């Protein structure tokens, strides 16, 4: 312990005071501490006015530890900060800031960069050349260009501003509580010169004692106890400290890393100034941005790991992916090893710096420039209730596309960015991304293309276009064709511009293509508008196809008119392979598949070039045999109006064609077609089984599909009315068995069955059922006689 009391001015001349990050925020400036400030500042002013009974105001001990000329106060931080602000304010008002600034710069914050930068800027005389005292000092400071808006979230800076300027909070009597330096020291320049002389003299009226803890060899436990009032660091603060430490260590090994530690423009400074400003507008109600800042960096660095380090989904870097792409709960609790394995080259930090530099210059949210049809997401995460916004796998690909543009462009250009992101969104949306491998493949595709972010159309359209990635070949081929048409249009009629198209906007092939991409459920994939029946790109019929596509697939599109358009489409099938893989319903997703898959390019081309979309009443299939029956029943019967969504055509033994959705378990979701049993039973159908007044010679079943001559189920259970009601089941293997109490009688008597393949018509069916019933009666009578 020093034997003599020391003034702050002498103390800051001997030491570089560095407030450690573990210390709590500057508490004396908090809201709710108005009376504390009033009392403490009042005592300081009394001492300066030499109104105290003793010669000097003696403050409590300051405890700290020293290391290479730096002093870290472990107790007394609050008093030191207030004394520093007092000296700064008096120097400013006395016109002494120029001479005082060098020594005042010896007070700083360790890794709380925003607080450090704020203090540094207060010590730059040029920043206050325009200050004349006619406006409040806090208003002046916060209106300066060097004051970052993000600093409004730093509790220490806000507390400092309150200590400087005070608050407008009143006491119980309604009078303003004098709780700021500006409010208390309402004096002229001469008085401030007097105060400054007193503060810097050998006999300063405000002193304290300093205790160097290391001189007493205190234990670690005591250090911890003395710091018990400090706050726990957030995950992001711990990450930042290790991040900066990592850069410092790399700089010792490689000079190329040294540039990132520049005092004014290095990453430690940017983390708490320029980069923080990017996230400030998305802060939570408490002014906190750490979680969203941390999430953004995690997403960015995971992409780096995938692209540059080729990290597999089993490697440690994939921890940054979170759980099924939900990274909202990630914490920094496993050290910096994950990040050091990613940030192996200085170029990665260069890219990250470029990204933030370009992003700061973008006036709007970057997602505002994405195609209108693309589902918007938060490029900069946002707080939503108790969590933060996350990204889907598709959005992660688009996130990467935005990052690559900002890293690579020479300067942000709206037109070029829109073009680049149109291609990125089209590629990301129009491919199946439901695994991490698929996502990684699309990221690598975007990375390859990103070498041309500023001229993507020209690159796609060039003869030199060559790419290693095999991801999304169909959509990439479409993007190449559209780029060529935009830059060097084939001779073709340009579609009419929309009626609501602004006269200020040019209508050309790029705008026509973009309009089509954003229409209905097309979402960037429109190759069906310029692909002919031979799977070749052809723009001659684009205008006609686009006009028909709007009629067919708009909000009230013709495709919603039951299955009319679907049946018309199927009527154009000329190859048996076309029936396989199609989903026989009229949902948007099914039509999207039909339009895009080159298997159906011929019927799609014919359909979109047509002037009518109704099936010809005299329609006949060009196929033969069972295939002819399949197509005609699908086209003419109306069955598709009634069946379950998601049905596909399947083939089974005994020449059976059946419609049902994938993995369907329920029998009522299965429909056998091109089978004579549907027509025969429909002719004899009298109603449901529970109908009370059944007619002789009719069949009754609950499996009839009302509205068409079809039945659901592999097997059809029905009641036939003769002298009594008899239960039959037409099995899917084409035998008709007689049942009694749900028991198949064929097991006891193989004569009680009918070969369905031998039935000629409904009359023949009735006769054979009557004969089967007679055989049943006879066998029943014989059994009774034996008994």
Task: Describe the model.
Pfam families: GmrSD_N (PF03235). The structure is a single chain. Strand 11 (647-652) and strand 12 (656-661) form a beta hairpin. The protein is elongated. The N and C termini lie far apart (121 Å). With 787 residues, the chain is an alpha+beta fold. Helices cover 42% and strands 10% of the residues. Strands 14, 15, 18, 19, 20, 21 and 22 form a seven-stranded mixed β-sheet that branches. The protein has a five-stranded mixed β-sheet with strand order 6-2-5-4-8. A three-stranded mixed β-sheet has the order 1-7-3. The protein folds into four domains: 6-226, no CATH class; 235-488, no CATH class; 542-669, no CATH class; 675-786, no CATH class.
Tally of DSSP β-strands:
22
Strand content: 5-15%
Query: Rg from C-alpha positions?
Result: 41 Å
Question: How confident is the prediction overall: mean pLDDT?
Answer: 90
Unreliable sequence segments: 217-231
Shape: elongated
What separation lies between the terminal Cα atoms?
A: 121 Å
Helical fraction: 40-55%
Biggest sheet architecture: 7 strands, mixed
Structural class: alpha+beta
Helical run tally:
29
Count of the domains: 4
Show the helix and strand layout.
Blueprint: E1 6-7, H1 8-14, E2 16-19, H2 34-48, E3 57-58, E4 62-67, E5 70-75, H3 77-94, H4 97-104, E6 107-109, H5 113-122, H6 137-142, H7 155-165, H8 181-184, H9 189-199, E7 206-208, E8 210-212, H10 220-226, H11 235-253, H12 267-271, H13 274-280, H14 290-308, H15 337-342, H16 346-360, E9 383-384, E10 387-388, H17 393-408, H18 414-429, H19 436-449, H20 456-461, H21 473-487, H22 509-517, H23 542-553, H24 564-571, H25 588-596, H26 601-608, H27 625-636, E11 647-652, E12 656-661, E13 671-673, H28 676-684, E14 685-687, E15 699-700, E16 704-705, E17 710-711, E18 716-721, E19 725-730, E20 735-740, E21 743-744, E22 753-755, H29 762-786
Helix pairs in contact: 3-4, 3-9, 11-14, 13-16, 16-17, 17-18, 17-19, 24-27
